Task: structure prediction
Amino acid sequence: MTFSIRKAMAASALAVGMAWAGSPAYAKTQVNFTVAEYSSKTGPYFEEVAAAFEKENPDIHINIQVVPWDTLLQRLTTDIAGGQAPDISIVGTRWLVDFASQGIAEPVDSYLTPEFKSTFIDTFMAPSVIDGKTMGLPVAASARAMLVNTDLLEKAGAKAPANWDEFYTTAEKLKALPDTFAFGLQGKEIETDAYFYYSLWTHGGDILKGDGTSGLDTPEALQAVTLYKKMIDEGLTQPSPTNYTREDVFNLFKQGKVGMVFTFPMLIPQIKAEAPNLKYKVLPFPEGKARATYGVTDTLMLFSSSQVKKEAWKFIEFAYKDEWRTKFDHGEGFLPVTKNVAAEKYYSSDPDIAGFAAGLPYAKFAPTIANWEEIADTTVRALQQIYLGQAKPDEALKAAAADINKIRSK
Amino acid sequence: MKSRTRIPTTPLLMILPSFLLAMSIIGYPILDLAWTSMQEVSRFGKMMGFIGLANFAEVFRDPLFYSSLVRTLIWTVAVVGGTLIMSLPIAIMLNDDFHGRGLARVIVMLPWAISLTMTAVLWRWSLNGRAGLINATLMDFHIITEPIEWLATAPLAFTVEILVGILVSIPFTTTIFLGGLSSLPQDSYEAAVVDGAKPWELFRYITLPLMKPFINIAIVLNVIYVFNSLPIIWVMTEGGPANGTDILVTYLYKLAFRFGQLGKASAISLIMFFVLFVFTIAYVLMVMRQEHDSTAEEVKNDA
Result:
């Protein structure tokens, strides 16, 4: 009897020893983490975090899958439908409602210690809270702002605009310069709607009205889009905006061919690398009835189907240490989501980053509502019809608002 | 005569295993699709319960479905028609013996070696209004003075996409035709030339009728490929601006993977399958009847 127990103990000790020695497949817990690719730095950065974490926790293996943004939602959809969902993933905060309402996202309130929670800036925590439950943690944040080419402004003898009236007169002066477009207007593909929201919000409108119906049929929305349309018709934008994606417009700016664009902080490192001689300035969006900028956050989400939530959370806490957050935010050009990183001198002394961060107090976020992508697409369709002159602004906006209300069943 | 009417069982038994294999590989996804199309499907592909034909009803209420359907028909007819008209002369030229024929054949076949998505990306860049190669070339030759924004409006963008579609379909079709041309009997040409037939008459009365089976197979296969082809339109315009270049398959892709309406998307893809299925069966029947008629005629003439 004793002999057999001893034998069994020896065998299990041997097994444990072997596992330690290097057969990770048996003893290690694997956490699958889907990472959205912000830039070429994203993958290596998370591999580095995972390696450092595994050194401290040899019993956990972090399996990182880097997926490009364009295919992320499709990839997660097929993974979830096929029962192969990861344990954690970076997702757009605008998708979070869909994940939450389907029971795919795990509320993290029970894991979130008050101490850990206090490291986050509240503004960025808020969009991830749905029906009082925290459905994820902010992982990346950016705010939008206006970029002006100061050389061109000087040549045209115009000053940097602070409100929409000045914006218009500055554009007229810029137009007089040869080979120059005054205002780069995006009209194609991802975030064509965002380019319009900048104008919508500063004109005092909003994506949704107080009662939850679409805000596209308001006078403010009409004013916002009429201004863009007028600028297209008068040649104050580049011709045919519907052929210009976000990147196309930014490329024109990098080439020094366009005077003013609306953009995100990630453009700054690109300008520094590709057009180091370009003189520019980061400014708030022109003011109308209101001041506004578009705050965009991405969320780190825990899947309710995960079998290794405890281990996954351990990794999450590790990855939010200041040293890692600093490296991530600086590398990708994001605004900080944690208080300690935000307190760094870099964010107040660097004029570019400070220019973008300045808008945060009055930043607007995309509403966390279901079927967001479809609503955005409906808005883009209406905008393209207006830009192309296929539909009258008020009719197109009213039709889009009706469609959106139908999608939202209001 | 007797042997024709009796049903031969041995050949049927011999194709039975591969037939069953094909049915399980092709049939299962279709059954699964049909099942999905009658379910309420959640944003992330979970089945929420049977709802009958509600997904189909929603598809048929959708104005974008009809405009995409019409555009799919234009797209298919234009691309397949254009491809056939271009490929036959190319194949005839490449069939003639001339210096450098090998090189010419390689050049015509090359686009086939590049993935459709890559080709589409290249065209998207080349057609860029300000930085694109096409506008730069046209302006250098003083053909245009102002850059043209090729993809800014739907009619022009769709035309350009059809042209690119024709370009990428040519290699495959030319290959079919080349195979057909090299199998044509040379003696009928020689006899016709002796009788004093002109080149056009050779083409019209010998080449074209003898090439018929190859043209038919090229039509069927191209219709199936082109009808279902996503990459060109998706990469160049994503069906925009304002859904003006959406065909069924791009609209379907948007519904399924952007909007998460998997039930409605399954319904559309089932409708697409059905359209293609009916077309293929109808076309094959038509061709078979024609052949049957013409062989019957020949038999009569011989008698």
Q: What stands out?
A: The radius of gyration of chain B is 24 Å. DSSP finds 13 helices and two strands in chain B. The longest strand of chain B covers residues 47-50.
